Amino acid sequence: MPKRLLLLSPTVLAALSFAAAGLVMLLIALGAALVIESRSESVVSERLAAAGMDWVGVESDGLQVFLTGTAPTEAARFTVLNLVGSVVDSSRIRDGLDVAPASALAPPRFSVEMLRNDDGIQLIGLIPKTTQIGGLTAADLAQAAAALTPGVEPANMLQAAEYAPPETWDAALRFGLEALKMLERSKISVMADRVEVTAIADSAEEKRQFEADLMASVPEGVKLVADISAPRPVITPFTLRFIKDATGARFDACSADTARAQGQILAAAREAGMTEDVACTIGMGVPSPRWGEAAAAGIRAVAALNAGTLTFSDTDITLVAGDGVTQAEFDRVVGELRASLPDVFSLDATPPRAETAAQGPAEFTATLSAEGKVELRGRLVDETQQAAVDAFARAQFGADLVYVATLLDQNLPDGWPVRVLAGLEALGQLHDGSLLVRSDLVEVKGVTGSQEARAKITQILSSRLGQGQTFRVDVRYDEELDPLAALPTPEECEANLRTVMASQKITFTPGSAEIASEAGPVIDALAKILQDCPGLWMEIAGHTDSQGSEGGNQALSQARAEAVLIALQGRRVDVSGMTAVGYGEALPIADNETEAGREANRRIEFVLKQPGGAVAAAVEAAVESAAAPDFSTDDSPSVAPSEKTMRPKPRPARED
């Protein structure tokens, strides 16, 4: 049976053609939309990333661009919308951005600066209006400052803000106020976690005492930065006293105006036979720029006599010949000394005097006991002098500690009242001792806890008695009476640390910065030393051997040094002035080719950073270079050879 062909009508064919064309157009439109969607999302994301707006999320759906995320501020949100609007039409942007809630304003940084000098006190800064329980308000601080300078109101420029104070604020402020009470010439800057003290002390001893007192009272959680300077003392009169007798050559007092003059004087004294180390004070008040030259010439004159006493009081010089000096020798030496002295100086030279008989009752004595009681006996001129001596002694030693048993004698030598009062003033510099006043001598003997007492007594007697008057100072320093002697110096602290480290090393777990458990006792011993040495400027240095990489060794040594610093801080050591530094393998002290050498190179060292012995070094340098016209030295400074740095050979892998 023949097949029949199925013929479509023209109408059906036209409909199918239109349907196929519509499908093609739909597919083209969908493709174009996907391309536009992908391109828009990519371009917007790139522009936002370039502007640092990485907190914005970008999605597209057809022609629409959706933005999501949380803007830190309303201004940031507005910036994003403008930026995206420059890339796509703003009608296509769908804003889904949130804005972070505004945070509370951060509290201000509270600080107070307190300035104190002879003109009064100034208070400047911002202080919390709301205080902790029992805390200091601005009014409390102003009232406390006013109490320090009665009659002079402080310049109060404090402002208060209504914010809660930081936790350590009140403790820091109270500590700053205590520092202000202690230091009459100072600037105290107080912050919640830090107190900075800049002050001037009258002497090196007072500077050291101030630093010790401040470190002892600094509150926990507050860092102290102290800069206390001790200017050169003003010496009045400018005094020097050099003696050579059967017991040797020595200074009772030594003053110089420059390091060079100090070197000249000490060099001449060593040539004259002095063997002990002497602190020759560099001060202000020198009567002549040629002081060092004149003092050295006088000391050489005493050395030429081989016995005598030389006293400088400003430009007045007294030279008293000692026992055994002949008249001819005395005349020769004094003549040479007069010729060598600068014109401004005057010389009163006393030849050897024969021993005289005791002068009976013509003497005055005073004894000072270790308990501070004073007994006055002997002769005074009249009732007026007796009353003056009694009043002076009670003012000097205490009204309830003076016992007077003196007699009146109108035939005493001229100048007797001055000699007695000068002697009592000198006696007041001692812990205990005695005073003897005669017509030909004022003698002060005793014990003191101050290394400056002998020089101070010499200054008093030389200025009060006048040129040509004979006096004797026999004073012994007792370290047990010195309140500052118990405080170790930074150099002593460093030496004590090295002694501990010499007996036992700080060891670590191999290959790490963890302190080994067996190193606990040595850390405890180091902490005990450092607790008595507060505020040291010290470097904790870490070193390794040459095994392993150089960079790895440096990092390991740094981590180990920091571990020691943290361990000491955990034992309540003040580490505010300490730094941890790792040197890796750069500074070996032994051969890295042997196990013993590598063990020695793996170490922790404590290195004092504030300079020690700088004054002594300067004095020695000045002594070496001082040019004295009457003597010379063949000694020349020796230069120690530089220590050769041992360089490691090819490095094996680290095992420790």
Binned, the helix content reads 25-40%
Identify the CATH homologous superfamily of the largest domain: OmpA-like domain
CATH architecture of the largest domain: 2-Layer Sandwich
What is the CA-CA span between the terminal residues?
Answer: 103 Å
Return the structural class: alpha/beta
Largest sheet: 6 strands, mixed
Question: Any idea what the shape is?
Answer: elongated
Task: Tell me how many strands there are.
Answer: 25
Count of domain modules: 5
Features:
37% helix, 24% strand, 656 residues, hypothetical protein tt1634, 5 domains, single chain, alpha/beta, 16 helices
Detailed description of the structure:
With 656 residues, the chain is of the alpha/beta class. The protein has five domains: 34-99, Histidine-containing Protein, Chain: A, CATH 3.30.1340.30; 111-229, hypothetical protein tt1634 (3-Layer(aba) Sandwich), CATH 3.40.1520; 239-350, hypothetical protein tt1634; 363-452, hypothetical protein tt1634 (3-Layer(aba) Sandwich); 490-612, 2-Layer Sandwich (60s Ribosomal Protein L30, Chain: A). Helix content is 37%, strand content 24%. It is built from 16 helices and 25 strands. The protein has a six-stranded mixed sheet, covered by helices on one side. A six-stranded mixed sheet has the order 19-18-17-20-21-22, with helices on one face. α3 (138-148) links the parallel β5 (120-128) and β6 (155-161). α7 (291-305) packs antiparallel against α8 (327-340). The radius of gyration is 42 Å and the shape is elongated. The termini are far apart.
